[in-house]
Amino acid sequence: MLKFKLKEVKSGPILHYPECLAAGWGMLSAAVTIGDARATRQPDPPPPRRRQCSLQACRVQFDEEFLETKEQLQKLQDGEHLLFQQVPMVEIDGMKLVQTRSILHYIAEKHQLFGKDLKERTLIDMYVEGTLDLLEMLIMHPFLKPEDQPKEVVHMAQKAIIRYFPVFEKVLRGHGQNFLVGNQLSLADVILLQTILALEEKIPNILSTFPFLQEYTVKLSNIPTIKRFLEPGSKKKPPPDDVYVRTVYNIFMS
Amino acid sequence: MSGKPVLHYFNIQGRMESIRWLLAAAGVEFEEKLIMCQEDLDKLKNDGLLMFHQVPMVEMDGMKMVQSRAILNYIATKYNLYGKDMKERLLIDMYTEGMADLFELSFKVILGPPEQRDATKSLIKDRAKNRFFPAFEKVLKSHGQGYLVGNKLSKADILLTELMYCVEEFDASLLTNFPLLQALKTRISNLPNVKKFLQPGSQRKPPMTEEKLEEARKVFKF
Asked: Record keywords: Transferase included (chain B) (predicted)?
């Protein structure tokens, strides 16, 4: 059994999460793609079971503590490290952040990914919240009964094509810029890119009627930091599989 | 842009109620265009007023805002209910998101399958009593101040008060072991703007009942 060790890393954030859950919980992987360009610190040699790598889009060093057993979660809870007894939890700047949206907002604000004023911020918020509704369907999908899963893929595709993609296609067509808000990378772009890529894993031609979104996806994916994150061997987690579903059940339901 | 905010939603608490609470607590007068039938909703959609074809939608300061969190954050920022810096904002966000988990469960009671209603209600009571209320009581105890964050009224205090009223509908005894939460609830309820909002005749909406839900199902066919 893996012995869980909680450590403070003064140089950067620590993400506490089940490794395979992070595959499904794209929100957390979104959190690790955002930020600004910053000088990196030379990483220490990685201790066993801890991996260090850059937060690709923002070149922020971070560690991950993967939860694989119920006992690990219990230890975090008993040690009062989790405000509401839940993960994700990110240790950053001397604090233990919980609640995915709070974590995303904090990181976005810290790394100038939340617009330049209140109106831009609100627009980013609206786009992010809408996209998260769609992403949440993807996250929940592996936990549906196998016989319900194909029908749900159709449902997600419909929502994407009828409700969400037209909004963003129109925005991009309207201003002709490479980013959704304020002509610079924001949390809205990161979450949308992540959602598009996750959907494409299930429905490869999902963007076929959205030329602006296609170009947008290519351009964002080629931003050097994001490009590195999308390459094999990066911190990005693979799509969920049966092992992942079983591990989640073992940790949270047994 | 002058003029009061205009709230577009059904004549229920639902996902608009927190926004009503926040505006009321901030002393902001607002109008409501209540959606009473399917045609009302269709018109909003067909006129292109709903970004993701959904309500709540709030017309305010030249924007047609959607997504309740985005709306709440805008109002909180505008009326100085969001802390004084990033760290305070973070705390307010974390606490509010925890509350949102409980609010989501309360929506599930209404919108979920009838046969699961009792189980969901039990879960709400359990989560409130064993997970969320203890966390907030501990926060208040840790600093001994009258508000959750920064010794100043914020979105977190207002929404927690709303939440306490909400879960008391399921079980009036839930706050028994949380004296500091009770004190917060009293303190917020006595703020002049909130006091007014809590009185009959205000824009506050009553809790959902089985009868109202059945009526709504017929009108909106869901």
From this structure: yes
B chain contacts of residue A128, beta-carbon cutoff 8 Å: 70
- Give residue for tokens 């939608």: B57
- Bridge-based pairing of strands A89-92 and A14-17 is antiparallel
Which residues in chain B touch residue A109, judged by CB atoms under 8 angstroms apart?
A: 86, 89
CB contact under 8 A, A84 and B135: yes
Contact B86 A110 (CB under 8 A): yes
Within a 13 Å sphere around the CA of B92, how many CA atoms are in the beta-carbon half? 28
Name B156's Cβ contacts closer than 8 Å, sequence gap at least 6.
Answer: B91, B92, B95, B96, B99, B147, B148, B149
Q: B86-191 has which CATH code?
A: 1.20.1050.10
Domain locations along chain B: 6-79+198-210, 86-191
Chain A residue numbers touching B52 (CB-CB < 8 A): 130, 133, 163-164, 167
Band (A60; pLDDT cuts 50, 70, 90): low
Write the pLDDT tens digit of every residue in A20-39. Answer: 333 333 444 444 443 322 22
- ipTM of this predicted structure: 0.93
Report which secondary-structure segment, H or E, holds A15: strand A14-17
Residues in chain A: 254
- Gap between the Cα atoms of A124 and A18, Å rounded: 28
Residue B196 tokens, joined: 């007014």
The per-residue pLDDT for B60 is 97
For the segment(s) B6-79+198-210, the CATH number from 3.40.30.10, 3.20.20.80, 1.10.3730.10, 3.40.50.720 is 3.40.30.10
Half-sphere exposure of A81 (CA within 13 A, CB side): 23
Sequence-ordered strand ranges (E) for B49-208: 57-60, 63-66
